[in-house]
Specification:
The chain is 33% helix and 15% strand. It is α/β, with parallel strands linked by helices. The chain has a single domain, classed as TIM Barrel (Alpha-Beta Barrel).
Amino acid sequence: MAILTTVVGSYPTPHWLLGNTSRTVLRDAVMVVLKTQELAGIDVIADGELNRFDPSHPETNGMIDYFVTRMDGIRSRFSVSDIDEFRKDAGMTYRTDPAGIVYGPIGEGVLNLPRDFEFTRGLAAKPIKFTCTGPHMLTKVLTDRHYGGRDKVAMAIAGVLRAQMERIDAEIVQIDEANISGHPEDREWALEAINHVLGGVRRTRGVHICFGNYGGQSVQKGFWKDLMPFLNGLKVDHLVLEFARRGFGELEAFRDLDPKIGLGLGVVDIKDNGIESGSLIAERIEHAAKVLGAGRVKYIHPDCGFWMLQRSVADGKMRALVEGRNLFEGRK
């Protein structure tokens, strides 16, 4: 079976969106992002997450704030004691403040992910991937003043997300989890919440896991082997994982991955402005095939989203991704 090329999600925000985020201008920007991927030859494309762009807070690219500020039961104004409570978590030291305070029952509020998908669907000619930050990641950036346990917060968030996923008919829905990589001890409650969301996905289910991409820095520390029980517990069709930045020395651990779960291989380093050659990417795929067996890699992609790069760099990396896959498979 042919390996498919895809992206993880975000794309550098076009400068001309700054100061003008009308629906017409946003539509034009999303069309540019989609068409750029199509021209590069990417098989499964995404909207660059520009629907979540906030000109007053662009550096997060909407992965967190877009979700929590729209849900009921979460406030974005907090006290010194709220901040002190959040900072007790040693695993969140890369953030100075919580993303929000849970003060009541979490509800959908004005979050409308189906509308975001429909906005993009009409602009694309290729299969679409829709991305959604997962309940574990969202729970970890909140301070709970209502539920009395992260497992309960995560399930409340998962309920909101699942109801919205059930209305999204994307070819692939990808749940993004960038904190679990450093916290395998959260496995039990994280799996319950993530699988609840995945149960609402109508078609192909993906989960993206990386070791962080906050300001172009790795945030989490850990090893893929420690996550294997978590990965094997996911009710997912394929994984979208970071390898290029970390190196491929941990590939052998994935011999223990459930063979029913497809492997997505990160072969492009998004923390480096250098553009990989097609031959280097082909070598990385070949190495993975030798370690894990022919046909084990189902997708290749960047390690994470492109949001921190210049557009010319991101575009070059996408072209190299396709060239490398074609070289590996002997395509012309």
